[in-house]
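About this split. The held-out portion is used to measure sequence recovery: a designer receives only the structure tokens and must propose an amino acid at every position. Recovery is the fraction of positions where the proposal matches the reference. Here is one held-out target exactly as it appears in the evaluation file.
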């Protein structure tokens, strides 16, 4: 993240996610820590090859994890990233949040 993300990055999650929108590198780091704190154990992760067009790329991600609240879950999402001046300036994740 320190290498690839721009200082003013915007991170967007679907409606209903705990942190729907955060702005700025430090806030994105806090969001990542918040997510990691919810996980009891990671069992696996899969990331597809990227699809690139113009200043964007996307990929499919699948994660298998046991959450402290909610038990073991397999999650799938589409991740879309925007790049400017060699840094990721926006990330947006598409998935169905768990109630």
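Reference sequence for scoring:
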């Amino acid at each position: 993240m320190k290498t690839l993300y721009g200082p003013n990055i915007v991170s967007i999650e679907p409606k209903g996610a705990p942190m729907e929108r955060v702005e700025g590198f430090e806030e994105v780091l806090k969001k990542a820590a918040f997510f990691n704190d919810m996980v009891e154990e990671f069992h696996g992760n899969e990331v597809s090859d990227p699809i690139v067009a113009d200043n964007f790329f996307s990929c499919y991600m699948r994660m298998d994890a046991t959450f402290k609240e909610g038990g073991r879950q397999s999650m799938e999402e589409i991740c879309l990233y925007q790049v400017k001046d060699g840094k990721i300036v926006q990330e947006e994740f598409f998935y169905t949040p768990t109630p």
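Annotator remark: The chain has one domain: 5-94.
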